[in-house]
Amino acid sequence: MTIAIPRLDRSTAEERGLTLADFLVPIRLGERTPTWVRHLLLVFAGTLIVAVCAQVVIPTQPVPFTLQSFGVLTVGAALGFRRGALALLLYVAVGAIGLSVFAPGGPQGFARLVGATGGYLVGFVVAAAIVGRLAELGWDRRIGGSLAAMAIGTAVIYAIGVPWLKVVSSISWEAAVAGGMTKFLIWDAAKLAVAAGIFPVAWWIIGRRPEDR
Q: From CA 106, how far away is CA 179, in angstroms rounded?
């Protein structure tokens, strides 16, 4: 008996490794700009997007409602594995040194990183990298793959953030899951659905190939 294993790489050979961000730079500007400069600008743009999303917040304890995870998933899928991870590493780094990029309320700077919600910040970096890699493999071209990639990214954020919350806050697993995951599921499902829907539509608009722009 043969068991069929789903194909992880859903892109063609020509598309492999390309993400939506590779089509966002105007052709004329791209031709005049060194590749490393384009990558750097995209990383900075990704960091800025997450920082802006973090400012949309509904303060609750111990973890607030924000648009951060929406920014993380979107940036990861748009930039890909390396650039997505770098954008979130830069976000965490500038927040840790004291710039006001983290969600308002609670401690800022390095204290936020090592505090009760620091695990979510670490999870953002890992999630952006994973979603970015899945995007490089073409998962974001169709709605089913895009939803799956965003769901995996969200699960990674919870998988790191909830245990961290439990340990740092010295609370029970029940309290950590309730305060750090359960109450966010509907909110995160909505963000996940919106983020997942953006990419198939965007790929359809640009024709999925550089020469079709």
A: 16
d(CA 207, CA 213): 7
**Burial of 174 (C-beta count, 10 Å sphere; 0-12/13-18/19+):** exposed
Q: Tell me the one-letter amino acid at 16.
A: R
Under 8 Å between Cβ of 169 and 176: yes
Distance CA 48, CA 68 (A): 11
Q: Enter the pTM of the model.
A: 0.85
Cα(13)–Cα(29) distance, rounded to whole angstroms? 26
One digit per residue, pLDDT tens: the chain, 213 residues?
444 444 555 555 445 678 988 887 765 665 667 888 889 999 999 999 999 999 988 777 667 778 899 999 999 999 999 999 999 999 999 999 999 899 887 788 999 999 998 999 999 999 999 999 999 999 999 999 999 999 999 999 999 999 999 999 999 999 999 988 998 899 889 999 999 999 999 998 887 454 544
Instruction: Sort residue 106 into left (φ over 0), alpha (ψ -120 to 50) or beta.
Output: left
